[in-house]
Specification:
This protein is α/β, with parallel strands linked by helices. It has helices at about 15-30, 40-50, 70-75, 90-100, 115-130, 140-150, 175-185, 205-215, 270-280, 300-305, 325-330, 340-355; strands at about 10-15, 35-40, 55-60, 85, 105, 170-175, 195-200, 220-225, 235, 245-250, 255-260, 285-290, 310-315, 335-340.
Length: about 350
Amino acid sequence: MENIKKTIRVLIVDDSILFRETLAKFLSSEPSIEIVGKAGDPYEARDLIVKLRPDVLTLDVEMPKMNGIQFLRKLLPQYPVPVVIVSSAPIAAFDVLDAGAVDYVRKAQFKSQAELKGFAEELIQKVMTASTAKVRQSRLETQKVSTAAAIPVPAKQVAAVGNSQYKVIAMGASTGGTDALQVVLTAMPTDCPPIVIVQHMPPVFTKMFAQRLNGICALQIKEAENGDRLQPGCVYLAPGDFHMELKKDSVGLFVRVHHGEKVSGHCPSVDVLFQSVAETAGASAIGVIMTGMGADGANGLLKMHEKGAYTIGQNKETCVVYGMPSVAYEKGACTIQAPLDVIAGMVTKQYRNAKRV
């Protein structure tokens, strides 16, 4: 019997009639997507969700009667439908992600055909990915996992790393990664080696994300700048639209942050970071690949593993999208797979128990 491809049923929520029609036109160009409804405000959207039971919701942030943040917090506990934010307001959109949205697409200015095409392609891709995502119902779920997994840490400070072989920890994530990274980083103690991270995010978002994490973690967390010297107990997040690589000189480890073409479909790219960590740190590194669509980071993690690094892949059950960790595991890049809530403990045990080589 011929396989029948599942149709993804989408409800569009936006207060602009013109933009609702624009989104519908773009999404309808993909044969596997069906637009089942359009809503101009959250109240209309709520009624249509109950009636139509869509697979994915596209949601604007700035709307009349109730904004997207309020709507999302009220919606997900009752109807855990995957939501893709489509907005021109980056700060508000980040807050909606915090409230449980799966992903986001920034509204384009449509100044050129290339920009129009890029927006449409990104929108279609993220809606299709969202249709496969596991939806958490509220930030409380993340907070519970984080609290359960946490290792008691002192007040924020920079601590020296003990006599361990591990000099750096590298992490990569995409869809669902903002929550996953929060769970891991809030549970990490301050005696850890420096941590370098690529999370697929556009400019502005990465700095906001780093600032938010810095406010809730014992670690020092910042958006990386070119030439930053790595210090124990500190975390360096690659900025949006910039690749980040680990480098070493006679003084020690530092990061190179630079513009470049997309690698494995992304800038920043997890593969770029992981490959540089493999070359620079070898067996003195720990690698972690977490939830995300696609395969970015799988080849880089494999190189780290081949150089002797200890590598962890987030398991399928706790991923929002089991893409990147799945490909890495299939390639043989993972020393071990683990649930999200134990990754911090596994990393900590590994660097604390390992002796200098």
